[in-house]
Design a protein that fits this description.
This protein is an alpha+beta fold. It folds into two domains: 3-151, Peptide Methionine Sulfoxide Reductase, Chain A (2-Layer Sandwich), CATH 3.30.1060.10; 167-287, Metal Binding Protein, Guanine Nucleotide Exchange Factor, Chain A, CATH 2.170.150. The protein has six helices and 17 strands. The chain has helices at 13-21, 43-46, 68-77, 104-119, 167-173, 176-184; strands at 3-10, 26-34, 54-62, 86-87, 90-91, 97-101, 130-133, 138-139, 202-206, 212-215, 219-220, 228-229, 237-242, 249-254, 260-265, 275-278, 283-287. It has a six-stranded mixed beta sheet, with helices on one face. A six-stranded antiparallel beta sheet has the order 11-12-16-15-14-13. Strands 10-9-17 form a three-stranded antiparallel beta sheet, with no helix packed on it. Strand 6 (97-101), helix 4 (104-119) and strand 7 (130-133) form a beta-alpha-beta unit. Helix 3 (68-77) packs across helix 4. The protein is elongated.
Length: 288
């Protein structure tokens, strides 16, 4: 077994730990405090926002089963990296977004990922995640370790809430295939989608709620059998970790209604390095 370590800060460490515990290939996690100047701080001290420490999670993983790059995908999918010193209602530098790198390779990968996500328009504001050398990591108190797991919870809501569409209205308006893809996370057969070869000038919107998600200028032929884009309309989509089918992937959903659109991969040919692999049936196309 080849074990490596990573350290991430993404808001309240309870939910961050639960998210990484669910990742195949992760062997161990530990919540704690790092990045500040106070030695051996307590939770109460960190909560005063005066220690400089962030609530962080140390991740021990088998690098034969999951790469550091994939861990970064999970990290950026479970929180909002565009809000400085804040995650939702939690405000303070202890809740900041940060990657604490343990070597130059981790540093370079984190910086590259930030550049790719900014270029791909995943968020509607620039990423403010700090990329810092790892400092002393102080384990948090025992009652913070596996906090959600011990309470029978698998996650806490770290991402913004979406509008809840009327399911009955969607069932009436959408085709059975569209409903299965958008609301039940199904996938259309490769090379079967109506927009696979669409090359006209226009925009693609979520078929469930009409939210514009991709522009035709970002579309390219990936040869995968599904419409592919190298960037999204800024702020229009959300990312979610997906561990189905014994894989670790990044799901793409509509930021407005939460409907499933497809998946994001890091093998795009353009400067963004991204390939949004999207179901045709999940979208509607409108000519410019």
């Amino acid at each position: 077994m080849s074990l490596s370590q990573a350290i991430f800060a993404a808001g309240c460490f309870w939910g961050v730990q639960a998210a990484f515990d669910a990742v195949p290939g992760v062997r161990e996690t530990l919540v704690g405090y790092t990045g500040g100047g106070t030695a051996a701080p307590t939770y109460e001290q960190v909560c005063t926002n005066s220690t400089g420490h962030a609530e962080a999670v140390k991740v021990v993983y088998d690098d034969r089963l999951i790469s550091y790059d994939r861990l970064l995908d999970v990290f950026f999918a479970i929180h909002n990296p565009t809000t400085p010193n804040r995650q939702g209602a939690d405000i303070g530098s202890q809740y900041r977004s940060a990657v604490f790198y343990l070597n130059n390779a981790q540093k370079e990968k984190a910086l590259r990922k930030i550049g790719q996500l900014n270029a791909a328009g995943v968020y509607d504001a620039p990423i403010v995640t700090e990329v810092l050398p790892a400092a002393e990591f102080y384990p948090a108190e025992t009652y913070h370790q596996k906090y959600l797991e011990r309470r029978g919870q698998s996650r806490c809501p770290l991402t913004p809430k979406t509008e809840t569409p009327d399911e009955e209205e969607l069932k009436q308006r959408l085709s059975p295939q569209q409903y299965d893809i958008l609301r039940r996370r199904a996938t259309e057969a490769p090379f079967s989608g109506q927009y696979l070869h669409t090359g006209e000038d226009g925009s693609f919107s979520c078929a469930a709620c009409g939210n514009p998600v991709f522009d035709s200028s970002a579309k390219f032929d990936s040869g995968s059998g599904w419409p592919s884009f190298d960037r999204a309309i800024p702020g229009s989509i959300a990312l979610n970790p997906d561990y189905s089918h014994n894989m670790t992937r990044t799901e793409v959903t509509c930021a407005r209604c939460g409907s499933h659109l497809g998946h994001l991969f890091n093998d795009g040919p353009s400067a963004t390095g991204m390939r949004f692999c999207i179901n045709s049936a999940a979208m509607n196309f409108k000519k410019r």
